[in-house]
Amino acid sequence: MRVAKIFYILLLNFNFFFVLLFSFTYLLGCCVCIRTIPLDSLSAISVSKYNDNIIVLHSKHDGYDLVFSIGGETDNHLAEFVARLYLACRSLENRIPVNVCDTITFNNSTKEGEERTLQFMKNPTGIAGTRFQRPNTVLYG
User: Fold this and answer.
1) pTM to 2 decimal places
2) For residues 54 and 118, what is the distance between their CA atoms, to the nearest angstrom?
C-alpha cells in the first residue's frame, strides 16, 4: 500500500455510496480519486477485532474491494460507519455480513485472483492510533 494518509468524505445518497478520497502517495505526490459504488454491489464488510479504524468493503466484482482508515490516525468512527452502511444496504434488501477477523483478505488489484492480506500488530512504540506499515501491515495503539 502506497497510501500514507487517507482523508474521506462519505455521502449516502440516492442509493449509492459516494467516496471522495484525497490520498497522498509516496511515488505520485498528491492525487484525487472519485469512485461511485452502488450499495447493492457490496458483498461484505470486514473489520479487525483490534483497536484500529480499518474497514474493508468487499465488492461482488473482482478487483473493487476498498480499504479505508475511518478517522485518520487517532479518531475512530468505525462503529458508526459500519452501522450506517449496513442499514443503508439493508434498506435496499442487500443483507451483507459484517466480518470481524484477525486478518482481512481483500482484492483491489486489476490482476485476476491477486489477493492481499492485512495483518494487524500492536504498535511496538506504544504510539496511539492506527498506521499503515509496508507491506500490508496495520499498527494499532
Assistant:
1) 0.75
2) 10
